[in-house]
Records
---
Amino acid sequence: MNIKRNILLNPGPSTTTDTVKMAQVVPDICPRESEFADMMKKMRQDLVKIVHGSQDEYTSVLFCGSGTLNMDVCLNSLLPERKKILVVNNGAYSSRAVEICEYYGLDFINLEFPVDELPDLAIIEETLKNNPDVALVYTTHNETGTGILNPIREIGALVHKYHAVFTVDTTSTYAMRPIHIKEDNIDFCMASAQKGLMAMTGLSFVIGKKDIIEKSKDYPKRSYYCNLFMQYDFFERTGEMHFTPPVQTVYAARQAIKEYFEEGERNKWERHQRVFEAIHRGLEELGFQDVIKREWQSGLVVSVRYPDDENWDFMKIHDYCYERGFTIYPGKISNADTFRLCALGAIDESDIVDFFKILKEALLSYHVAVPVLYGDSRS
Ligand SMILES: *Cc1c(COP(=O)(O)O)cnc(C)c1O
């Protein structure tokens, strides 16, 4: 079968290999069969292995849904009664966590920092010191809206100094940028099959400390479908998801994990960096400016300013590229017009070189000046 290869430069789902796509085509199976449970058991272990966790100390819990479900699960399940959540917030995804806290009526502190700056560790420490009722601290590793990489190891050290639990949204770094769950001071992290693993949408997972999950058995139950202990407990007792798993997506994820280990953590990260550098080179050649200070970038997402050109129309450029097999994506910064180019997925440097040929063609065909212009560089 010949499947058209699209280059997705959006922040997930990412470009997949044909072998992962085809892994979904399997004989029909009832997921309550032990064959299926055995596959998920192995997968749960592999997901812990990817972040170098010990199988005794850490576990992973699978859910059927997109990545936001993990955020919901961690926030609603890991907060003891009469305790507070601290959200270290410098971007759109941590703001989403704040919204989840609001929806559940949880007690929380929204500690906001500018979206183009790293959070201030001294302020985080001050907040923890002044709020001894904070039991759960939440932040985002790579803020996918801008591509800024947060210092999770340092934040985690503070969180543990003040005896709280540290949950990190690693959805857009997991299986790309190497993570060492223990050394990085993470108690819980999370991801979705369609991002770093380069698999299909519909399967998400939380990875974290068994003892804390077991303790959370007695915490208030705020959701029926999305409770971490309930899903963990069902897995431990039966080997299965509590409710129907995304069967074919699980098969694709199994193939993707196999390919992950074959490529190797280091090679894969080097490939993502190669793609990231190629994106920067292409942008520089066309005169585009990015938003986040280079040394703060995650190496996975580039947030690019719209040029100041009356002929620039993001949707027209998007459509031109899309028709030719390349997908670009709008930004997620409320006070600036940006678009994003991401280094996720089963792509390499040559795909980026091909993309920039098309992007340049698109700019020229819509009479956008090349190199692109910015108000502040013209004056
Ligand atoms: C993609 C992503 C999510 C999940 O988004 P969904 O649309 O629910 O899959 C969560 N956090 C971060 C940082 C992400 O990049």
---
Amino acid sequence: MMISLEKLVRPNIWSLAPYSSARDEYSGKEAHVFMDANENPFNAPFNRYPDPLQRELKAQLMKVKGVPEDMIFLGNGSDEAIDLAYRVFCNPGQDNVVAIAPTYGMYQVCADINGVEYRSVLLDDQFDFQADKLLAACDANTKIIWLCSPNNPTGNSLNRDEMLKVLDAFGGIVIVDEAYIDFARQLSMRQELVRHPNLIILQTMSKAWGSAAIRLGMAFASKEIIAIYNKVKYPYNVNLLTQQQAMAMLKDPFEVDKWVKLLLSERVRLMQAFQELPLCEKIYPTDANFFLARVTDAQRIYDYLVDRGIIVRNRSKIQLCSNCLRITIGSHTENNELIAALRQF
Ligand SMILES: *Cc1c(COP(=O)(O)O)cnc(C)c1O
């Protein structure tokens, strides 16, 4: 039961006349003399502005993800899609968003940057959530509910039925961050897009696709929402090198499948070895390429590992995560090195 998009989008954004770049006004293929964008004729191919809508890349993504091109937004990492959500939907000083806690820190950072109230609702002791509790934290000014599944830093997938309940009951936008979905047993929520015009799904090439350096994040949503995102984004927000490298990666999705399988089997091995360490108090179930573990003394263990050149993430200061370390699954030898070091702690 989504409120109309016109009521959800900020009035200034709804009525915005977007910047029209040279490449927007002419995008045909037949021309061979380009004197419209004040580009330099030398230093091809880097002299030309890249496609502002990344059409070739989206055509390839459509085949891999099964989402039509006009339902895909591409940005400078998922972080761009997160920030855009606030700029599109939330009136500063007036609107608010609701999120699970603990979760990915960028949702709150972007809320703070945009002057938007951020309301968090603590997860239960299984790190899962109840739709009713999230909905109870909403009011007439709540524009967005943030969900992250598998969740960071906890690693678990959220209960799908509860996520669907939120989608059905909430009139605003529900954003499901699926940065780790390629590692998960749960299916992506992509197939729910047809039934839920208020759903935005975030994915990224930074994790399973092994391409954090190129900064490519994706948002999947209704074509109406994507059109508004395209209006607000920087005209050339994804550079040519990123578009080319992403297309090279997408040509061989089976390579990614191999990495994922390998990382999942390494995850089993690393977690088993970790569990037997005297310093391990509890390992939480995970659906991602990392796991959260409660240890005897997170700060001392963290410092000890830093001294040995091994960096894990100390999440001790986060609600529900006291004495917890978040450990990313590395290569076979990296995982061995971590365990060998911890056995000597
Ligand atoms: C790593 C991560 C991302 C990825 O962000 P990028 O900007 O695409 O690199 C997004 N969401 C979550 C929850 C993450 O952990």
